[in-house]
Amino acid sequence: MDLSVVDVPERSRYEVSADGKVVGFSAYHLIAEGVLALPHVEVEPAFEGRGVASALMRDSLDHIRGRGLKIVPICPFAQAFLERNPDYADLVHTG
Q: Least crowded by CB within 10 Å, which of 18, 32, 55, 71?
């Protein structure tokens, strides 16, 4: 399965595609200068348990880091991903 993740700013989300078909997304919105809230991550049921949501989180967080932004993880999946991947802890907004 070939996965790709792209930022779709006009829809305020990162989308993950499997073999060219969008199968999930991670929504975001700006809550303060340089800070994005991550309220929802969703993957089609047929793709759950196959690492798609984790790939979506990794690629979107890498992109967010590259933009010099911080995050507020609201979605339970995003929170759990950050707990399992402490190398992204520096992205969490603490203010």
A: 32
Cα pseudo-dihedral 77, 79, 85, 90, rounded to 10: 140
Does residue 95 surpass a pLDDT of 90?
no
Note the maximum CA span of the chain.
39
What SS3 state is found at 48?
coil
Please say whether the dihedral angle defined by the alpha carbons of residues 18, 22, 27 and 29, taken in this order, is positive or negative: positive
Domain ranges, ordered by start, for the chain: 3-91
Q: Answer whether residue 1 shows pLDDT above 90.
A: no
**Domain over 3-91 is classified CATH 3.40.630.30:** yes
Q: Are 27 and 46 in contact (CB under 8 A)?
A: no
Q: What is the pLDDT of residues 23-56, one digit of tens each?
A: 999 999 999 999 999 999 999 999 999 999 999 9
